[in-house]
Structure formats: structure tokens, C-alpha cells
TrEMBL record:
<dbReference type="GO" id="GO:0016887">
    <property type="term" value="F:ATP hydrolysis activity"/>
</dbReference>
<keyword id="KW-1003">Cell membrane</keyword>
<dbReference type="InterPro" id="IPR003593">
    <property type="entry name" value="AAA+_ATPase"/>
</dbReference>
<keyword id="KW-0997">Cell inner membrane</keyword>
<keyword id="KW-0067">ATP-binding</keyword>
<protein>
    <submittedName>
        <fullName>Thiamine transport system ATP-binding protein</fullName>
    </submittedName>
</protein>
<dbReference type="InterPro" id="IPR017871">
    <property type="entry name" value="ABC_transporter-like_CS"/>
</dbReference>
<feature type="domain" description="ABC transporter">
    <location>
        <begin position="2"/>
        <end position="230"/>
    </location>
</feature>
<dbReference type="InterPro" id="IPR027417">
    <property type="entry name" value="P-loop_NTPase"/>
</dbReference>
<dbReference type="InterPro" id="IPR003439">
    <property type="entry name" value="ABC_transporter-like_ATP-bd"/>
</dbReference>
<dbReference type="GO" id="GO:0005524">
    <property type="term" value="F:ATP binding"/>
</dbReference>
<keyword id="KW-0813">Transport</keyword>
<keyword id="KW-1278">Translocase</keyword>
<dbReference type="Pfam" id="PF00005">
    <property type="entry name" value="ABC_tran"/>
</dbReference>
<dbReference type="InterPro" id="IPR050093">
    <property type="entry name" value="ABC_SmlMolc_Importer"/>
</dbReference>
<keyword id="KW-0547">Nucleotide-binding</keyword>
<keyword id="KW-0472">Membrane</keyword>
Length: 240
């Protein structure tokens, strides 16, 4: 369980309150208007921002004071954070060892992860020789080998076309969430939430709301969310 115990986050004049729990092994969408604080919340979970008040706990243990590197958290951003001068395998290897001193066993894990995301045989390619979708797969493989308990996705697939984006979302669901990771995914697209997130956390008006079931929430959104979703196409169901 990831618990926010009367947390208050501050960025300049901005204030965000969070008092909720996210079940271990769940996949949650994080939605809310631009500037509502979604990235701020992820930064606090990862340890880049310290709460002004309250505690963040994982599995009952307070991680509020831990440095980012000491947390079992992996992040995936829109630009995938791949290093252009490193091969696909080396980029994945960074998820295991930041100094890239990989043992034979590590190398096998890297190969296995690349195989799992459909990139077997492309280990030695640099990112520039990979398509956008393949680059996203490398980034997912890096999260796979990291074995972190918590995975934070900040709109990593927004730049991909719809079919490719759906493929990546399904990979996240199959390879990360189904394997027990606790996944929180920022998205501006309600269809993404419907596709893979059984629960959704709404951030609005300075508050992070507790997770609720995605389908009923989007079918019948509260006023603040309805205003935000107003301009967005909400395709119902995963297949249409
Ligand atoms: N370093 C900072 N100093 C001051 N204010 C900041 C800083 N970083 C973010 N903010 C403010 O905090 C608020 C929340 O920003 P945040 O990036 O978390 O929103 P968001 O929901 O992720 O937005 P978007 O959907 O546009 O990415 C915004 O009002 C933003 O201007």
C-alpha cells in the first residue's frame, strides 16, 4: 500500500493536499486539469520534492526522508529518457546498474527484458536507429529490469499514434501491472484510463482524491472532472 498521510506539497504558491492510499499491485490513472498537480504528486513519490507536511509510506514504512535513489520507484516520462550514445541493451542495463558494470547474469536479464517487449535482436541499436514505438519499448524494458515496486508514468506515450499508444499501454498492463508492480499513470486521455486502469485518482482544486473505479467515474463524472473532460473524446470500452 502506498499511503499519503495528511501530505501537503508546495511549489511556489501552489498547494496540493493528499490523504489517501493506493493498493499495492494496482494500476491507477491520474487525471486532472493542466496545472492541477499531477507531476508534483509523482515528484513527491519519487523523492524529488519533500512534503511541507505529512508522510508518504510504502508498505507501512515511512519513505518521506529517503533520497530518490533509495526508493523502490521507477519513472517513465514522455521523452523516455534514453541516452542517445548508448545501445538499447545499455539503456536497459542502466535500470539494473547505473554504472553499467553488468555481470553475465545482468546481461541475461537485460536480454530477457528486451525479448519480453518484442525487441530481441535489436540489443545493439542506438535509440536513433529505433522507431518511436521501439524506443518506448526500450524504456519499458528498463523499468522491467529495475524491479522497483512502484512505477510512475508521466504521459510517456502521448507522442505516439493511437494504435501504437494502445500497444504500449497493453505492455504496461501485461508486463508491469500484471507482475505485481504498483503503477500510477498520468494521462490526459480518458480512453487510456478506461483501457488499462481499473481505478482513477482525480487531482483537482488542490486536492488529490482517493482512487475510485474508472468506469463509473468516467460514465458519471463529478462536476470538476466533467468540465475538464468536456473537450475530450471519451471512447467507451477498450476496443472501439
Ligand atoms: N518549480 C516550481 N515553482 C513554482 N511553481 C511550480 C513549480 N513547478 C510547478 N509549479 C506549479 O505547480 C502547479 C502544478 O504543476 P504540475 O506540473 O504538477 O501540474 P500538472 O497537473 O502535472 O500539469 P500538466 O497536466 O500541465 O502537466 C502549477 O500551478 C505549476 O505552475
Amino acid at each position: 500500500m502506498l499511503t499519503f498521510d495528511r501530505v501537503e506539497l508546495r511549489q511556489g504558491d501552489f498547494r496540493l493536499k493528499a490523504h489517501l492510499s493506493v493498493a499495492a499491485g494496482s494500476l491507477s490513472a491520474l487525471i486532472g486539469p493542466s496545472g492541477s498537480g499531477k507531476s508534483t504528486l509523482l515528484a513527491a513519490i519519487a523523492g524529488f520534492i519533500a512534503p511541507a507536511q505529512g508522510r508518504i509510506l510504502w508498505a507501512g514504512k515511512d519513505m518521506t526522508g529517503k533520497a530518490p535513489g533509495q526508493r523502490s520507484v521507477a519513472m517513465l516520462f514522455q521523452d523516455n529518457n534514453l541516452f542517445p550514445h548508448l545501445s538499447a541493451a545499455q539503456n536497459v542495463g542502466l535500470g539494473l546498474r547505473p554504472d553499467l558494470k553488468l555481470t553475465q547474469d545482468d546481461r541475461e536479464r537485460v536480454s530477457d527484458a528486451l525479448g519480453q517487449v518484442g525487441l530481441a535482436g535489436l540489443e545493439n541499436r542506438k535509440p536513433s536507429a529505433l522507431s518511436g514505438g521501439q524506443q518506448s519499448r526500450v524504456a519499458i524494458a528498463r523499468v522491467l529490469v529495475s524491479q522497483s515496486d512502484i512505477v510512475l508514468l508521466d504521459e510517456p506515450f502521448a507522442a505516439l499514434g493511437p494504435a501504437l499508444k494502445d500497444e504500449m499501454l497493453d505492455l504496461v498492463a501485461d508486463k508491469l501491472s500484471a507482475k505485481g508492480r504498483t503503477v500510477i499513470m498520468v494521462t490526459h486521455d480518458p480512453a487510456d484510463a478506461r483501457r488499462i486502469a481499473s481505478q482513477t485518482i482525480v487531482v483537482s482544486d488542490g486536492i488529490v482524491h482517493p482512487p475510485v473505479e474508472t468506469g463509473p467515474l468516467l460514465d458519471n463524472p463529478p462536476e470538476a472532472l466533467a468540465a475538464y473532460l468536456g473537450g475530450k473524446k471519451d471512447k467507451k470500452g477498450p476496443l472501439n
